[in-house]
Every structure is written in C-alpha cells, then in structure tokens.
Amino acid sequence: MTATRKRRRGGPARGGAGAWELAVILAIVVAVLDYAWTRRDEGDLTAETGLGYYLGIVGGVMMLMLLLYPMRKRFAALRFLGGIRGWFRVHMILGIVGPALMVLHSNFTLASLNGSIAFPSMSIVAISGLVGRFLYTRIHRGLYGRRASTRDYLGDSESFKAAFRLDDELAPAVMARNKAHEERRLTPAGSLWTGLGLVLSSPWARFRCRRDLRRPLRGRLQRADRRALDRTLNRYLFAVARAEAFAYYEQLFALWHLLHFPLFILLVLAALIHVVAVHLY
C-alpha cells in the first residue's frame, strides 16, 4: 500500500495584492494619526475653521460615498459606474481614510453633544467594517476575489481521499471512517453556538479520526508508506476542517450583514444631525 501526494487545488487563496494595498494605506493612516496626536494641543486643527473644518467635509463625503458600493451591488441600472470589484476596493479604502479624516477633524476631542454621538457611531461602524473585512476574506478567494463555496474545500478532501491507495481488505473500513468523520463534522450547524463548538472541537476531532484510521494499518506498512500515509491523511483532515470553518464563517458573515447596514444608517443620521446643529447653532 502506498499513499501519493497531490497538490492542493480547491481552497481559496488568502491575501494577495488587495491585502498589501490596504496594509500600506492603514500604515500611512496610523502614522498620520500618531503625528496629529502628538500635536493635538498645538492648535493646528480646529473643527470650526481652516484645515480641520475642510477635513471634516471631505471625511463626511467619503463616509457618504460608502453607500455607492451596496447601491452598485444591488441595482443593475448603476452598471455604468463600473465593476462591483472596483467599487468594493474603493469601499474598503474609504472605510479607512474617511473615519481617519473625521478623527483629525475632531482633533481627538468631543467638544459638543452632537459630536459625542456622531463620533462613537462612526467608531462602531468602522470597527464593524473591520470585522466584516475579516469575515469576507474567510469566504472569498482573497480580498477582491470571487466568493468561495464549501464545494471548493470538499474538492480538496475528495482529492486527498483519492490519494489513498489501499488494499481491498482495508479500503472499506478506512473509507467508512472517512465518511463518518465528514458527516459528523460537515452537518449544517443549527445555531452559531453549535457551529462555534464544531470549530473549537476540530483539533480533537482530527486527532481521533487520525488515530482511528491509523489503528487498522499498524504493522502492515513500511516506514516510507506510513509517512506518505500520514502526509495524505493530514491534508485530508485539514481540508475537512477548512470546509467546516468555512460554513461557520458563512453564518457569521450573514449575521454581520444584518447588523452592519442598520448601524451605517444610524451613523448617517447622526452625522446629518451633527452638521445641521453645527451650522445652525
């Protein structure tokens, strides 16, 4: 009996140019905010006049422009604005730069009641956006790639199962154990807590399955075959674990979608109240 190695093909790629792009922008924003923080008492920026005032206008416009991505995504009539992928890139950049400009506009202070409402609202939405970005990368091929599917990961597990070359006597028991493991781990979770429990228990489940699969093969393999089997077995079990985690991240992403947009609408309302109050009073 021998086990052959197969190259992983199914799972979505992580990172890529998009991740580096956002990392560079985020690093620049952090550097600028750090410098502004050291000079916050020097009077360089004030929310009422000068550069600080215009930073608030530009930041507010950027925050409003965040609506363009969901509108482009939902309304086919807006195809003339460009591709959805490009607007998602713009959405991610605006979601970093816009709040940063608003922080500079406030000069790290909350001097009014309406500002004390608008700024925390913006902070909550920005944090929610970062959470959404994390979840997005877990269910898509990279940051700006297409959405993956459980089938991508199951394609991995099937290819690794096919790499097992077993004697006719051993094949039924091993394949039955593989099937039982998949059915137990990939059954749709009824709740987020159930899904979380599956993800957290995944290392222990992999250990048990590996142990049970090795047991009938003891004493029947030479060292080289045993090592090849372990490599293939590990790839198979991790492919199943990735499919399991993917299903859980899909649940979380769906829940995040339900929460993020209402939070953003509340932010827009708070910002409008802030602008009206500042210019009227």
Automatic annotation (TrEMBL):
The chain crosses the membrane at residues 20-38, 50-69, 90-111, 117-136, 261-280. Keywords: Membrane, Transmembrane, Transmembrane helix. The keyword Membrane applies. The keyword Transmembrane applies. This is Ferric reductase like transmembrane component.
